[in-house]
Amino acid sequence: MAIRINAEQIKDQVPMVDLLARLGHEPAYRTGKELFYTSMLREERTPSLCVNEHMDVWYDHGGPNRSGIKGGNVIDFGLAYWHPATFPEVLEKITSIMAMPVQTSTQEPGRQKRPRQQATRIANYRIETVKELDTHPAITRYLQSRGIWEAAQGRLSEVYYCITGGPKQGRQFFSAGWQNEAGGWELRNRIGDRDFKSCLGRKAISLIPGSPDNLSLFEGYMDYLSWLRDNPQATDTVIVLNSVNLLDTAVDKASSFATVNVYFDRDKAGEAALDRLMQALPQTLDRSDIYKGYKDYNEMLMARTPQRLPWEEDHIYEKVMATYRR
Questions:
Q1: Segments forming the whole domain that contains residue 165
Q2: Which of 13, 176, 191, 304 is the most buried (most CB within 10 A)?
């Protein structure tokens, strides 16, 4: 009984943001009522652990951790953070860190619980228009910087949308984007010195039909386009996870293929996803050696020295004039 009551007390009185602050973690940035943190549950470069202050829930978009817990309330976070600690041990840790009084009896009649919002996501955006590429120069520069401008033609669009609620209500934004299987728009752009990732609508995988025998599987769409640049004649069916949390969906669709070529990130999340995939599908082939020394396929592509035309070389005038000197 004491454990149950303490658990309810923790869920009612300990905001996720406060616990993270006590543990030494501050958000990297805010989007409306959502705070994004560099995940403390695994290694990553791009902040993808999201905390919704309004609902007081969290979700790690970047992939699985050792516990296998992807999101939930503050206690779910504790179970993931202190894995493999037991449920009572996690309650004790949170109580100690937050300096909460220990309550071991039933709730007093007069005590009122803090009202909690039902975790139902409400759309707070409106898509204004979708255009072909090469309309907005910032999107063009971003895709060129990723080395996938040519491969993106006909596969990515420019998505213009506005925020209809919250602190940013009325503000308009744009990003490169593509639709996933659920009709949601996966968005990518560069904002300042960081890469922007988001999804308008329901999160889902992306499926590009091709060969009924060969499947190529990617974590991200930029890696798919990078691979396509190197393999323009490829006929494989392609699945892009858009999030490693959608691996189970991909496994169901991949089971019918004779060969499954996997191009996951060379990090802990990618390796864990690859292990799960190999256990489920024996026809899985790890292709990450192609970009050995890099985190993913796109990082390898971006590291290549671009081939420059003769007239684009540095000091070309001086070099030409030097040929006329006696």
A1: 125-200
A2: 176
